[in-house]
């Protein structure tokens, strides 16, 4: 599609102003987009020397093309707009020599510069042209544009005028004839003009940027220092205040309105003046009015799926009482502000989110868009940071729960994705304090990670992020859903992996060296030889000889770290806990190599311990957890085995003849003490998944096989975690290149959207078997049910409820029961045909029967009287 150019009319034309009416010099806005930067054009069609010309190269090239093509009357939009130019008001400023002498007295410039200005004024009077003219239509309001006479023609002065710009916000002067910090005759004349016409500009002013003391007079520099608290972006404390305000008041909704996501995609549809909507300060008591909008930049860009929209002006406001700053951060315009210079359309943000869900990096999406639009986009890292900023401000709950299994699944599957790593030098990780017990505040940690993502939007080039989160043993938390975890204090005892000495009573459960040795066989011979050389070992011999040497050397911690970093990368991968439906409930980003300790930390942080845990090293997990919780022994009976480890039971299990029924997995039985709320049982078992149940050397582990339990065998997919990793490993090529905090934040976000999509698919499947008018809601355990949800439930009141157990839906008030059972709401539904009626339903049926019986009696009575009357009158 070609771009349709609108005609220049009275309603739509470029702003323009007369500069020199005698010679036909005008100032015209360069473009329709803000800010209105002026250029000079000449249109003199009277007298002997007529001349029509625009000073822009692009317009001149277009005019040449039109002339070559036979289009003689061609005019650019700047010249066409002169037809609607206002008349010259004749109020030109006549610069006085007394004003110039006063400026010399106040040391704005020296006598030599004064003499040059007077000489230039005389030359302008001789040529009958105005020396200086203020351009009134140009913006923003903090900039003053002065058209100054220049007799010599040059590349920056084609029509005998140059434009000097004074920025009252930055206290800078700009002239096209030289650099910003160099003085020239044009700047001196512009200062002369403004000193005479707007003396207030040369007194106490506010600035938002650092000012060079050599650039302005000493008196003015001191005045600027009094307002240094209004520098934007502010200092670290000021940024923290803004970030917390954005997190609290400017979060994006989870479900963005579709009209904002798909409606705004083209440049003409976006606002070009982005001003914060706040009027009063939210930090101060009382209604403290904020300042007028102060411009940050007029060259911001909006990145969309179809290209880049340029010429966007962004503003901020400041509170004069507490110096709190407010910037534009509104999603209702269909855009997301990252750093006031780059903004993303919400449409593009959603595209990037979906691309990541399909294992496509942000950099690849940007490369595709650049090649398609044939335009230069911002750097890919900046766009990635902008997307993370968008996700950080989105009000996601990160529930990490399954709509079928609820907040507390009966059965969980655990595994490690060892290829999902981030770079981290172990030597830079400080040891944890001596009194640290592994308790970490999960909310505080993830809030700090979120603040780091948001804080990137306030950092200029080279400035260090004050909120950066570095891996540490005492401040590094997993993520567990808010309804699943016991409290906001969770466990992370990775610091214990560094202990070299062990008690004689502690069984040897650290098998990471053994697993690391197994992984050595997956390396090429050259890589194994290189490892041997780095560890100071003999590099001669077969692969087996080299591996055996490395196995022995791994008892040394330094050699272990070298081998681990070669095989696993820097960090220890991420451990997950999933339900049989494949929904991720917990994720832990390991700093060191995996061990049962990592999964024990997750399970012990849960509010309700699962009844069945499936893991590839079940024996080590059960022993480790029972050792840490010796008073309660979570894995019991039989240390998490399905039966007592007698010789007979072990033999029957090996022959697949042993069957141990766990009926409470299907139907809740009478509740035990400290039982699981969905099963009523306090038994907890640690079982092997099907791929690893034959890898163990302990014969007693035959009692940890899934096939022993009829309720699990064939019904539970023990490879849900592996299947998840099979999909997520496609993201390693970009996730593993991120910083530790960026890796963890983006991985948590990707898993959250993955869980949401899986739950949505399950909900859609359930809706196919119920009536469209039926309401699907959740019971007190987070399980999807059919009916009215409970308003408040404690653990003693909660009961299981699924879609086929409608009579067990908890009804908190009689009013809601009456509404549910009103005749207008009663419909036949085969989902409840085979279930007994509840007490409320019985009452309703009795009421209907009584009403029907009363109506029948009345009708029969009336019929009897009518019949009797007819008999009597015969």
Entry summary:
By secondary structure, this protein is α+β, with helices and mostly antiparallel strands.
Describe this structure in words.
This is LOW QUALITY PROTEIN: uncharacterized protein LOC109071643. Residues 520-554 form the SAP domain. The structure is a single chain. This protein is an alpha+beta fold and 874 residues long. Among the domains are: 16-84, no CATH class; 97-230, no CATH class; 236-393, no CATH class; 511-568; 776-832, no CATH class. The chain is 33% helix and 13% strand. Strands 9, 10, 11, 12, 13 and 14 form a six-stranded mixed β-sheet that branches. Strands 17-20-19-15-21-22 form a six-stranded mixed β-sheet, sandwiched between helices. Strand 3 (38-44) and strand 4 (51-54) form a beta hairpin. Helix 14 (525-534) packs parallel to helix 15 (543-553) and helix 17 crosses helix 18 (618-628). The longest helix has 35 residues, at 839-873. Mean pLDDT is 82; it is low at 204-229, 500-511, 791-821 and 830-835.
């Amino acid at each position: 599609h070609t771009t349709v150019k609108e005609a220049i009319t009275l309603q739509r034309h470029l702003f323009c102003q007369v500069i020199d009416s005698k010679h036909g010099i005008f100032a015209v806005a360069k473009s329709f987009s803000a800010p209105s930067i002026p250029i000079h054009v000449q249109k003199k069609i009277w007298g002997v020397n007529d001349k029509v010309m625009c000073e822009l190269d692009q317009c001149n090239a277009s005019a040449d093309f039109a002339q070559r093509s036979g289009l003689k009357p061609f005019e650019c939009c700047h010249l066409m707009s002169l037809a609607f130019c206002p008349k010259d008001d004749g109020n030109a400023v006549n610069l006085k020599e007394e004003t110039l002498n006063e400026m010399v007295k106040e040391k704005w410039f020296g006598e030599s510069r004064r003499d040059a200005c007077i000489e230039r004024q005389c030359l302008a009077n001789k040529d009958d042209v105005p020396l200086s003219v203020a351009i009134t239509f140009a913006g923003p309001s903090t900039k003053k544009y002065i058209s100054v006479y220049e007799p010599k023609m040059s590349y920056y002065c084609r029509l005998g005028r140059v434009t000097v710009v004074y920025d009252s916000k930055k206290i800078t002067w700009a002239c096209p004839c030289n650099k910003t910090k160099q003085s020239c005759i044009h700047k001196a004349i512009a200062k002369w003009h403004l000193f005479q016409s707007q003396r207030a500009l040369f007194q106490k002013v506010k600035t938002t940027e650092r000012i060079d003391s050599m650039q302005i007079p000493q008196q003015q520099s001191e005045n600027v220092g009094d307002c240094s608290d209004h520098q934007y972006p502010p200092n670290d404390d000021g940024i923290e205040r803004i970030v917390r305000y954005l997190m609290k008041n400017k979060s994006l909704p989870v479900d963005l309105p579709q009209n904002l996501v798909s409606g705004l995609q083209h440049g003409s549809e976006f606002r070009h003046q982005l001003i914060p909507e706040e009027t009063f300060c939210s930090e101060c008591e009382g209604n403290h009015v904020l300042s007028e909008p102060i411009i940050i930049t007029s060259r911001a860009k909006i990145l969309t799926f179809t290209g880049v929209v340029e010429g966007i002006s962004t503003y901020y406001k400041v509170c004069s009482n507490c110096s709190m700053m407010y910037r534009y951060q509104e999603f209702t315009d269909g855009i997301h502000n990252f750093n006031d210079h780059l903004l993303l359309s919400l449409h593009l943000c959603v595209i990037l989110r979906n691309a990541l869900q399909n294992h496509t990096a942000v950099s690849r999406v940007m490369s595709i868009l650049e090649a398609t639009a044939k335009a230069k986009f911002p750097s890919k890292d900046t766009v990635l940071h902008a997307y993370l900023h968008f996700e950080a401000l989105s009000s996601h709950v990160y529930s990490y729960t399954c709509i079928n299994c609820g907040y507390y699944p009966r059965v969980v599957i655990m595994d490690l994705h060892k290829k999902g790593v981030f770079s981290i030098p172990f030597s830079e990780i400080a040891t944890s304090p001596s009194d640290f017990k592994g308790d970490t505040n999960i909310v505080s940690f993830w809030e700090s990670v979120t603040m780091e993502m948001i804080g990137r939007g306030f950092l200029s080039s080279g400035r260090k992020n004050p909120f950066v989160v570095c891996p540490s043993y005492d401040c590094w938390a997993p993520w567990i859903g808010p309804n699943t975890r016991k409290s906001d204090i969770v466990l992370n005892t990775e610091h214990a992996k560094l202990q070299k000495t062990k008690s004689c009573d502690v069984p040897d459960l650290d098998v990471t060296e053994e697993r690391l040795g197994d992984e050595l066989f997956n390396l090429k011979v050259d890589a194994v030889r290189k490892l041997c050389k780095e560890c100071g070992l003999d590099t001669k011999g077969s692969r087996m000889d080299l591996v055996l040497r490395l196995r022995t050397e791994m008892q040394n911690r330094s050699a272990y770290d070298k081998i681990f970093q070669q095989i696993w990368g820097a960090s220890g991968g991420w451990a997950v806990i999933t339900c049989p439906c494949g929904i991720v409930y917990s994720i832990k980003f390991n700093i060191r190599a995996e061990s049962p300790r990592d999964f024990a930390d997750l399970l012990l942080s849960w509010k309700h311990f699962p009844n069945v845990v499936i893991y590839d090293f079940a024996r080590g997990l059960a022993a480790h957890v029972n050792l840490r919780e010796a008073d309660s022994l979570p894995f019991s009976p039989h240390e998490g085995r399905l039966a007592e480890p007698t010789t007979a039971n072990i033999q029957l299990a090996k022959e697949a003849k042993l069957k141990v029924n766990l009926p409470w997995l299907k139907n809740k039985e009478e509740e035990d003490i400290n039982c699981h709320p969905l099963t009523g049982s306090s038994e907890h078992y640690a079982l092997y998944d099907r791929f690893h149940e034959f890898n163990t050397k302990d014969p007693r582990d035959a009692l940890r096989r899934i096939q022993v339990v009829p309720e699990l065998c064939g019904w539970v997919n023990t490879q849900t975690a592996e299947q998840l990793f099979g999909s997520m490993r496609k993201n390693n090529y970009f996730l593993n290149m991120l910083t530790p905090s960026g890796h963890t934040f983006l991985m948590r976000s990707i898993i959250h959207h993955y869980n949401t999509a899986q739950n949505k698919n399950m909900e859609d499947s359930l809706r196919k078997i119920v009536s469209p008018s039926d309401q699907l809601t959740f019971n007190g355990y987070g399980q999807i049910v059919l009916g009215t949800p409970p308003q408040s439930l404690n653990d003693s009141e909660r009961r299981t409820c699924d879609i086929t157990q409608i009579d067990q839906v908890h009804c908190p008030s009689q009013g809601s029961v009456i509404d549910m059972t009103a005749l207008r709401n009663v419909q036949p539904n085969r989902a409840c045909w085979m279930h007994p009626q509840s007490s409320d339903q019985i009452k309703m049926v009795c009421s209907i029967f009584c009403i029907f019986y009363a109506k029948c009696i009345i009708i029969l009575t009336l019929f009897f009287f009518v019949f009797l009357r007819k008999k009597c009158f015969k």
